[in-house]
Amino acid sequence: MTTSHYQLKRVDLIFKNENDWKQILSRSLKRDQTDIVNSLISSELKGRGGAGFPTGLKWKLTAEQEADTRYIICNADEGEPGTFKDREILSQVPLKVLTAMAVCGYVIGATEGFIYLRGEYKFLEKPLNNAIKEFENYCNDIGFHFSIKIFMGSGAYICGEETALMESMEGHRGEPRNKPPYPTNNGYLGKPTVVNNVETLVHTYTIFKYGAKKFKDLGVQYSRGTKLFSISGDTPIPGIYELELGMSLQDFVDEFGDGDTKAVQVGGASGFLVPRKRFAETIIGYKGKLTGISLPTGGSMMLFNSSRSMFNVLNNYLDFFQEESCGQCTPCRVGCQQLLKGIHAVKRGEKHASYLKKLIKLSETMEYTAKCGLGQSVANSFSSIVENFWEEMVF
Amino acid sequence: MNSTQSLISELVSQHGKKRTSLLPILQGVVEQEKFLTEFSMIEIAKALDLPASDVYGTASFYSFLEHKKMGQFIIRVCKTITCDMKGKNQILLAIQDMLKINIGETTPDGKFSLLQTNCLGWCHKAPAMLINDEVFTEVTPEKVREIIGTYMKRND
Fold first, then answer.
1. Contact, B113 vs B105, CB < 8 A?
2. What is the pLDDT of residues A1-48, one digit of tens each?
3. B68 inside domain
4. Do both B78 and B52 map to the same domain?
5. Cross-chain CB nearest to B121 (options A87, A269, A316)
6. In this structure, are B48 and B97 located in the same domain?
7. A82–B119: do the CB atoms touch at under 8 Å?
8. What angle in degrees, to the nearest 10, is found between the helix axes of A310-324 and A373-388?
C-alpha cells in the first residue's frame, strides 16, 4: 500500500437529487443574482470539460457585459477518446442540467439556452426533448421565461472547442476562432455567452442545493469538489465513477487496475500518459501547488496493461488527431500528419531512432503555434508516450 | 417540384431561413436521403440565399454529412483506442465477410454501407458500433452477425 496523503474516495452527488429540481429552481430564482455568483466563486468550482476555468467567474464576466441578448450553451459534444460521462448525465439526470442552465440564464440575463449534442448521441435527442418540454412547462407555470433548444452536431471532434462549437451553431465550418475575444464578451452571434460542460452544470446544481461550503469541503486545495471519471481499457470494472479530486494515481490504479497496469492515459488522447514508475507522484487535479505532478482531466482514464503496445496506442491517437484536425492552421494540419508518418518511418527503420527527438521538437512547436487546444495538446500524449516508451517506438 | 425540393422547402419552413438553420437543414436532408448531392446543396443555397460554395464548404466539414451515395443502413464501427484494443478488427472482418464489402463500400442492393468512425463514447462497453442512430455495444463477431441478420430482414 502507498502512504499517500490523498486517498481515493467515492462520492454520490451527481446521479441523485434530480427530484428536487422544481424546488431548487424556484428557490434560486428568489435569490439575488450576485449572491448566486458569489457562492459559485467561493465554492471554487472549475470547469469539468478539461480546461478548468472557474465557473463562477465565467458567469460573472458574462453578466457584466453590456448587451441586449446573452446566451447559455451546454456543451454536450463529448468527443474526447475515453470520455462518456456526459452521455450518462444527460440520460439519467437531464432535469438537473436544464435547471442549472435556467439558473445561469437568470444570473447572466439570458432567456435562451442551447444544448450542443454530438451527432453520435442522436438517440438522446428524443428523451432530452421530452425533459425540455416538462421543464419549460414548469417554467411557464411559475412565470419564468426561458427556452432550451437542442442543436445537433454532425461528427466533428473539434466542435467541442467552445468557439468552434459556436461557429458550427452559426452554420459554418467548425473552425475555432482566435481568442481573445472570449465567448464571455463575444460568443454566439457575437453576444456574451456562457459555454459550460454538462458536468459543470450539474455541479452548480449541487452547490445550489447544499451551498458552497459542502462542495468546497470535498477535494483538495486548488481542486475542489468531485469529478466524474470515465474509466476504460484494461480494467475489470470499466464504467463511470464519481470520485473526490486530489487522489494519487497509485490509489486509482490499486482500485481500478487489473494488477498488471503499465500505464494510464489521463485526460484522453489530448492528455498525458503516465508510466507505472510515476503513479505514486501523480495527483489527479487541476494545476496548483500539489506535491508531485498534478494532472487536470476531463475525466477520461484509460488503463493499459503489459500486453499493449504503446506504439499502437500512439498510432491510434495520431490517426485520430490527423482526421479530426480542422485543417485551418498549418502547425496542426501538417504537424499531425508528419508525426504519424514519422513514427512509422522510425518503426520501419527508414529513419534513425534519433528522428523521434525531432518529432518531439515538432510537437512542441505545435504546442506554441497551433491556434486552438487540439493542435496545442497533441504534444502532451506524443512526448509523454515517446519519452517513456522509447524502445517500443523503435523496436 | 421533385421530392428533394419539397423536402428542402419543408425543412426551411420548419427551421427558418437564417444561416443558423443551415446545419439542421443539411442534417434533415441526410436523414431522409442518406447523403448530399450537388443538386440538394444548390437547392439549399437558393432557399437560404447563400453562395453554393458556402453550403458545400460547411457540409464538407462534417463527417456525418456524407457526399456519396450511401446504403439505407450505415454501419459505423468505432476504431478509437479502447474499441481497437477490445477487438474491433474482428467485428469488421465479420461484417465484411457477411456483406462481401470493404470499408467505405456499399452493398450492390443499396442496403448497407460500412464505415469506421472515431470515438463513439462507449469505451467502457467496447467494441461499439452505430447502425444509423442505433447503438450496439460489447459486440462480438457472433452478435454482429445476428444484428446484421435482423437488419437484412427489415423492409422499411
1. yes
2. 344 455 789 999 999 999 999 999 999 999 999 999 999 999 999 999
3. no
4. no
5. A87
6. no
7. yes
8. 170
Amino acid at A71: Y
Output the pLDDT for position A292: 52
- Closest Cα of chain B to A82: distance in Å? 6
Strand A293-295 to A282-284 pairing = parallel
Q: Which residue from A minimizes the CA distance to B17?
A: A171
User: Which residues, numbered 36 to 95 in chain B, qualify as contacts with chain A under a Cβ-Cβ cut-off of 8 Å?
Assistant: 57-58, 61-65, 79-82, 84-85
N-to-C CA span, chain B: 25
Domains of chain A (ranges; CATH) run 18-216 (3.40.50.11540), 310-394 (1.20.1440.230)
Q: Is residue B77 located within the same domain as residue B122?
A: yes
CB-nearest partner of B58 from A122, A173, A189: A173
Q: Which residue has the cell 465557473?
A: A55
- Residue A52, pLDDT score: 87
For residue range A192-217, list pLDDT tens digits in order: 999 999 999 999 999 999 999 999 99
What percentage of chain B's residues is helix, strand, coil (to nearest 5)?
Answer: 50, 10, 35
Per residue in A336-395, pLDDT tens?
999 999 999 999 999 999 999 999 999 999 999 999 999 999 999 999 999 999 999 999
**Residues B52, B90 share a domain:** no
By C-alpha distance, which of A213, A206, A208 is closest to A228? Answer: A206
Neighbours of B103 (CB within 10 A): 14
CATH number for position B105 = 3.40.30.10
Of A81, A123, A238, the CB nearest to B81: A81
Q: List phi, psi (to 5°) of B17.
A: -100, 5
| Chain B closest-CA separation from residue A127 CA (Å) | 14
Cβ atoms of A77 and A291 closer than 8 Å? no
Is the domain of B89 the same as that of B125?
A: yes
In terms of CA atoms, which chain B residue is nearest residue A174?
B61
Q: What is the CA radius of gyration of chain B?
A: 17
Nearest to B2 by CA among B41, B30, B40, B46: B40
Write the ipTM: 0.96
Three cell numbers written together for A190: 457575437
Question: Do B50 and B81 fall within a single domain?
Answer: no
- In one letter, which amino acid is A116? Y
Non-local (6+) Cβ contacts of A254 within 8 A are A1, A2, A8
**Residue A264 has which C-alpha cell?**
494510464
Instruction: Residue B14: give the domain boundaries.
Output: 3-59
Residues from chain A that touch B121, judged by Cβ atoms under 8 A, are 78-79, 83-84, 87, 118, 120-121
**Separation between Cα atoms, residue B103 and residue B115, nearest integer Å:** 5
User: Quick check: is B36 in a domain?
Assistant: yes
d(CA B81, CA A317): 7
